[in-house]
TrEMBL record, chain A:
<keyword id="KW-0547">Nucleotide-binding</keyword>
<dbReference type="InterPro" id="IPR000608">
    <property type="entry name" value="UBC"/>
</dbReference>
<protein>
    <recommendedName>
        <fullName>Ubiquitin-conjugating enzyme E2 2</fullName>
        <ecNumber>2.3.2.23</ecNumber>
    </recommendedName>
</protein>
<dbReference type="InterPro" id="IPR016135">
    <property type="entry name" value="UBQ-conjugating_enzyme/RWD"/>
</dbReference>
<keyword id="KW-0067">ATP-binding</keyword>
<dbReference type="InterPro" id="IPR050113">
    <property type="entry name" value="Ub_conjugating_enzyme"/>
</dbReference>
<dbReference type="GO" id="GO:0005524">
    <property type="term" value="F:ATP binding"/>
</dbReference>
<dbReference type="InterPro" id="IPR023313">
    <property type="entry name" value="UBQ-conjugating_AS"/>
</dbReference>
<dbReference type="GO" id="GO:0061631">
    <property type="term" value="F:ubiquitin conjugating enzyme activity"/>
</dbReference>
UniProtKB/TrEMBL annotation, chain B:
<dbReference type="GO" id="GO:0006511">
    <property type="term" value="P:ubiquitin-dependent protein catabolic process"/>
</dbReference>
<dbReference type="InterPro" id="IPR057975">
    <property type="entry name" value="TPR_ANAPC2"/>
</dbReference>
<dbReference type="InterPro" id="IPR014786">
    <property type="entry name" value="ANAPC2_C"/>
</dbReference>
<dbReference type="InterPro" id="IPR016158">
    <property type="entry name" value="Cullin_homology"/>
</dbReference>
<dbReference type="GO" id="GO:0070979">
    <property type="term" value="P:protein K11-linked ubiquitination"/>
</dbReference>
<protein>
    <recommendedName>
        <fullName>Anaphase-promoting complex subunit 2</fullName>
    </recommendedName>
</protein>
<dbReference type="Pfam" id="PF25773">
    <property type="entry name" value="TPR_ANAPC2"/>
</dbReference>
<keyword id="KW-0132">Cell division</keyword>
<dbReference type="InterPro" id="IPR059120">
    <property type="entry name" value="Cullin-like_AB"/>
</dbReference>
């Protein structure tokens, strides 16, 4: 107790130091949040979706797996995705890309996704699990109003059989080597 | 000419036969003396006959008497020289020089009595006089017949070289175990007074007396010989350094010898290489206990601090030990428990703390700590007159202001975090088991740790200690305001700061549960409605049993008490002859307790001779109401049960070990591994371990082997498969 009274200046530098450390504190929060999400994901064990960090040194990179929903052109196919979390996550949305080649109205050929909750409608209440579930349902119900792949959007409505053929032609499971990249 | 042929015929075979076979050491003296004598005799007689013949020949030609004498002298000298060369040619040079050098070496040994006991350096003493006389005579004889000179000098040099080495390993130079002093001073003295004198003597004998060169040895020669000798001594010491380290600190004399030897970098390098080799050969083996390695490491630290106060050598030789210690899983545990161990009783007498404690560490902990406040950079202190540059062979990370005490070396073995985890576990165990002491020692130890590891890291330990001390106060308060029957004392622990504690649950006897409720009410009244979460498995109970013929009072664990409580005859049960019987299954159901705990408790009570296995039904136990003679005979069984109870105690103490943790969370780990392999494809075991360590909250407690067990379990469940070369992947289909 006495020591506090004698040298109050010693507490001053600490107080000054704390603002810059907030950024590192926020990455810590991000890590903590991602760890919790991972734990929940593991424990809930939702069928058809799965995700796991891909980098042993950081939790900011994940790989995810989605099974194509039954009764859609994507049934019995599996898709790999990557998640890149910004250090400000969950205030900002993660960057999600399809790694497995996919033929879909809202996904372009380099795997970029047009989904509102990943863009302007992102909110901190979403998490990896909800994003994956949204993507899974997007496979069955594309938003043809704002297509990234216009041809696919047309085919979806006009010629489901041709669409199915295109999906199968485009789909190819990734090898382990490609996964590493 | 006649003489030459005479020599060839008579003397040469004799001499050659003498040297023909390799000469036994014992006979070397004789042989050389014989050679010298026969050559001497031959020389005299040849010269005599030569002179006789010569005088007659010369007399006929000579004009004056002086001419005769001069010519005769010349001729005789020429003749003698020829004779000498004849002699030299007649004997095998190599063997002769070897023999001579042996003789000289032997003489040296005898003179300095290397193989005897009384220390006496002087070669002028009367006892060694005989040897000396004999040597001088022999050498003079050899010199006279022309066997001296350069060849003999070479032999002599060879002999002295051997003599020096011999002396260094002789009893004179043995390590001073009692005086704990260096022997180098003694060695230097010997070089000056003994060795130098001998060299002088021999050289005088072996040098042509006609030459006028005066033989002297200045200080320069003596010093260079001393250097040579010390170098040899140092090498001998370096090769046995491990033995000296093991016998620290009786062996400090040897270390001081080495210190004298270590003057150049090549010598330091040699020492490091040699000692590292010894370490690998003799210490860093799977068979050595970690405790032993730690003890030796401390000796090494102390010895090398003596040897090289700058710590450069220590850094080098300690590297393999440190690396090896890091690989051992129990190192941190042993260090921490040794630091906490009691090796002194109240009177300061040493007590043997038993197996897993390094006594050296514990002793070291008792020492007062030197001030570690001297942290500022010494290089910037311009006024420091004792400043020296850093040693040239120091590595880049070398820091001269390394803390001086041994404990800090041990604590830098690992991250402070690792130590604190270990410390928390051991301290928790320690606090829970020694609930009676006043914790003075623990408080002191914590303060010591804080000085070394920093305040902030030790917060949890502080809280743990305060919890226990507070609990004592709380117990007094609550038990005085709300007395319970039976009396109950609780430890109130802040679960956030404590390591995981065992939380096996079971039904506790109703009376105890009531007491707990009263206590909890008292606690809530004091502590502002904070709730207590009871950990029944952690307690200690004193049980008093009233049996028909005796009373038993035992201290035991709560589950053991609960089990024996279940043997109490309930009112509904009919009175029967003999004790109450319960089966294992009954107890499990009744107490909602794990089978392992039930069996442990039963074994304990069998050991206390309160219960016995039912003679007819398996897995059923009966109360021994009367200790009959029949029961007494089963002493062996009882002993076995006692042992079993001690061994089986599940988890033993209150703190959950890494292994228990691993078992408990196995399904969680399995989920993680499956998730990982689903998304990442095939992975090696090492990578899986790395990912687990990062991804699992709280970290993965095990190592590669534990990952292996998890993977094997999953393989048996058909979820994953090994695709060869330790790569694992999710099973398809």
């Amino acid at each position: 107790m006495d020591s506090y009274a004698e040298n109050p200046p010693s507490t001053m530098p600490d107080a000054k130091v704390s603002p810059p450390t907030r950024s590192s504190g926020s990455t810590q929060n991000t890590t903590k949040r991602l760890q919790t999400e991972l734990m929940n994901l593991m424990l809930s064990n939702t069928p058809g979706i799965s995700a796991f960090p891909s980098d042993a040194t950081s939790l900011l990179h994940w790989t995810a797996t989605i099974d194509g929903p039954a009764d859609t052109p994507y049934a019995n196919l599996t898709f790999k995705l990557t998640f890149e979390f910004p250090s400000s996550y969950p205030l900002q949305a993660p960057t999600v890309l399809f790694k497995t080649p996919i033929y879909h109205p809202n996904i372009d050929f380099s795997g970029r996704i047009c989904l509102d909750i990943l863009k302007e409608k992102w909110s901190a209440i979403y998490n990896v699990q909800s994003v994956l579930l949204s993507l899974q349902s997007l496979l069955g119900e594309p938003n043809n109003a704002s297509p990234l792949n216009g041809k696919a959007a047309e085919l979806w409505d006009s010629d489901p059989e041709e669409f199915q053929r295109q999906v199968l032609a485009r789909h190819r499971d990734l090898t382990d080597e490609e996964m590493e990249i | 000419m006649k003489i030459r042929s005479h020599f060839t015929i008579t003397l040469q075979p004799k001499v050659q036969s003498m040297l023909a076979t390799s000469i036994e050491c014992k006979r070397a003296w004789e042989v050389l003396e014989n050679i010298a004598q026969s050559y001497g005799r031959a020389r005299t007689s040849y010269t005599q006959s030569f002179t006789d013949g010569l005088t007659q020949m010369i007399k006929q030609e000579a004009r004056t008497e002086t001419d005769v004498q001069n010519m005769a002298k010349d001729a005789v000298r020429r003749f003698q020289r020829e004779l000498e060369s004849l002699f030299v040619q007649a004997i095998p040079a190599k063997r002769f020089s070897k023999t001579l050098s042996y003789v000289l070496f032997d003489a040296g040994c005898k003179l300095f009595r290397l193989h005897m006991n009384a220390p006496n350096f002087s070669i002028h003493s009367t006892e060694t006089g005989d040897v000396k006389r004999r040597l001088v005579q022999l050498l003079k004889g050899l010199q006279m017949v022309g066997l001296g000179g350069d060849a003999a000098h070479r032999s002599f040099a060879h002999a002295m070289d051997k003599l020096l080495s011999e002396f260094v390993v002789s009893h004179y130079m043995k390590v001073d175990w009692y005086g704990k002093l260096s022997v180098t001073a003694k060695l230097k003295e010997w070089i000056k007074d003994g060795f130098g004198q001998l060299v002088l003597l021999v050289m005088e004998c072996l040098t042509d007396s006609t030459t006028t060169v005066k033989l002297t040895f200045g200080m320069a020669e003596i010093t260079s010989w001393q250097k040579m000798a010390i170098e040899r001594l140092g090498r001998a010491r370096a090769d046995n350094l491990f033995d000296y380290i093991v016998n620290w600190d009786q062996s400090i004399g040897a270390i001081l010898d080495l210190k004298e030897y270590l003057t150049t970098n090549s010598e330091r390098a040699h020492l490091v290489v040699s000692f590292t080799g010894q370490l690998y050969r003799r210490l860093l083996r799977p068979g050595t206990t970690t405790t032993h390695i730690l003890d030796i490491y401390i000796y090494v630290i102390r010895a090398f601090k003596e040897l090289d106060p700058k710590g450069v050598l220590l850094e080098r030789v300690a590297l393999p030990i440190r690396r090896y210690l890091k690989d051992r899983t129990d190192t941190a545990k042993i260090i921490v428990s040794s630091l906490l161990a009691d090796i002194q009783d109240e009177d300061g007498n040493h007590v043997d703390p038993g197996g897993d404690i390094s006594i050296e560490i514990a002793t070291e902990m008792l020492k007062p700590i030197s001030s570690t406040a001297n942290d500022h950079d010494d290089d910037l202190n311009w006024g420091d007159l004792n400043w020296t540059p850093e040693p040239v062979d120091a590595s880049a990370e070398y820091k001269s202001s390394r803390a001086n005490d041994v404990i800090s070396y041990l604590l830098t073995l690992f991250d402070p975090g690792d130590f604190i985890t270990e410390l928390k576990n051991i301290l928790g165990e320690h606090l829970l088991t020694n609930s009676d002491s006043s914790f003075d020692k623990e408080i002191r130890l914590l303060e010591l740790f804080k000085l070394r590891l920093g305040d902030s890291q030790m917060q949890a330990c502080d809280v743990m200690l305060r919890d226990v001390v507070d609990s004592k106060r709380l117990n007094t308060t609550i038990s005085s305001s709300r007395p319970t029957k039976p009396p109950i004392r609780a430890h109130v622990l802040s679960s956030f700061f404590w390591p995981p504690l065992r939380d096996d649950t079971f039904t506790i006897p109703a009376t105890v549960a009531e007491a707990q409720a009263i206590y909890a009410a008292g606690f809530e009244a004091i502590k502002d409605m904070r709730k207590l979460h009871w950990l029944p498995a952690l307690g200690k109970v004193t049980v008093e049993l009233e049996l028909q013929d005796r009373e038993v009072s035992v201290d035991c664990t709560t589950w053991q008490a609960s089990v024996i409580h279940a043997f109490q005859r309930s009112s509904s049960e009919p009175q029967r002859v003999g004790g109450v019987a319960r089966s294992v299954q009954q107890l499990e159901d009744h107490l909602a307790m794990d089978e392992a705990l039930v069996r442990n408790a039963l074994a304990f009570w069998v050991g206390e001779r309160v219960l016995a296995p039912h003679p007819d039904t398996p897995d059923t136990y009966v109360v021994l109401e009367r200790l009959t003679s029949a029961a007494r005979t089963t002493r062996a069984e009882v002993e076995a049960a006692k042992e079993e109870a001690a061994m089986e105690a599940p988890g033993g103490g209150g703190v959950v070990t890494a292994n228990d943790l691993l078992d408990r969370n196995r399904s969680l780990y399995e989920t993680f591994v499956v998730g990982m392999l689903t998304n990442q494809g095939g992975m090696t075991r090492a990578r899986i371990l790395m990912m687990l360590k990062m991804a699992v909250p709280g970290g993965f407690p095990g190592g590669a082997e534990d990952v292996g067990t998890v993977l094997e379990g999953l393989r048996e469940a058909g979820k994953v498969d090994s695709t060869g070369a330790d790569v694992w992947a999710v099973k398809k289909g």
